[in-house]
Amino acid sequence: MLDQIKGLHHVTSMAADAQENNAFFTNVLGLRRVKKTVNFDAPEVYHLYYGDEAGTPGSVMTYFPFPRIGPGRRGAGEVSETGFAVPPGTLDFWRDRLEGAGVDGLAEFEAFGERRLRFHGPDGDGFALIETPDDPREPYADGPVPADKGVHGFRGVTMRLRDGAATSELLKFMGYREIARDGVLIRFALEGGNGADIVDLEVLPDAAPARQGAGSVHHVAFAVADRAAQVEVRRALLEAGAHVTPVIDRDYFWAIYFRTPGGILFEIATNEPGFARDEDPAHLGEALKLPKQHAHLRPQLEKTLPAIAD
């Protein structure tokens, strides 16, 4: 069993419109845009990062807004819901705020003894705000949401699967342990993690397969401290039979990827070097930052990438 993984690092999804996506996460949810860059493999598409003050691992939601992308189809083999931790007693505030912003899919419910408010993102993304006591992480304090009601970071993710057995074994190998069941949900938790340390499996044997598109999670990333820990995790995964990519430099972290038995793409990302490596911490996410291999495209990209209002 691995002990290097410390919880979620980030969750990356796809969107149809960059400006709408940016407005939702910064103006409605009150997160900070901590990086405005481009997709490494498709530089004509933004890669936008939102999180806490510094973009701390475990707080960062990222998006590829592909113009003209079709909507995703919910189903098995995907992350069906991303949960954000908020302070206890704040769901009434959040319901009023989201209703006032015209957010769809609002539904309050309870799972594992936690009050939750489910809602949809601009592309039908599945989200929930989860009242989480004793979360020491600090919300972003300089946005439109008061700090005492703000998002602390991720609580965790829910993965919808037809069969949870193989993924359960993988999570246990990664250091998680099963701690509870609630209906079709199986909860896994990581002790001593970064706060974003819950994974719920929603097992629905008859669910149709998901189809990726706008509103779909592209991959979910798990955090390790540094490159040395990542090498250890990669070696262990390879020895266990996983098909793992080489280490890839993503400028703000190093990454490896592999596909789970349930079809979900996992990433293992380092906490280093962080989002301040090429921007002053006071001005994160303001300027367009380009990977060095795409630096020569700046004149073209500055003309063709859609404008995003700050």
TrEMBL record:
Coiled coil: none annotated. The keyword Oxidoreductase applies. Residues 7-132, 153-271 form the VOC domain. Keywords: Dioxygenase, Oxidoreductase. GO terms for molecular function: dioxygenase activity. It comes from the Bacteria. Pfam families: Glyoxalase. InterPro entries: Extradiol_RC_dioxygenase, Glyas_Bleomycin-R_OHBP_Dase, Glyas_Fos-R_dOase_dom, VOC_core. PANTHER family: RING-CLEAVING DIOXYGENASE MHQE-RELATED. This is Ring-cleaving dioxygenase. It comes from Palleronia sediminis. The lineage of its organism: Bacteria, Pseudomonadati, Pseudomonadota, Alphaproteobacteria, Rhodobacterales.
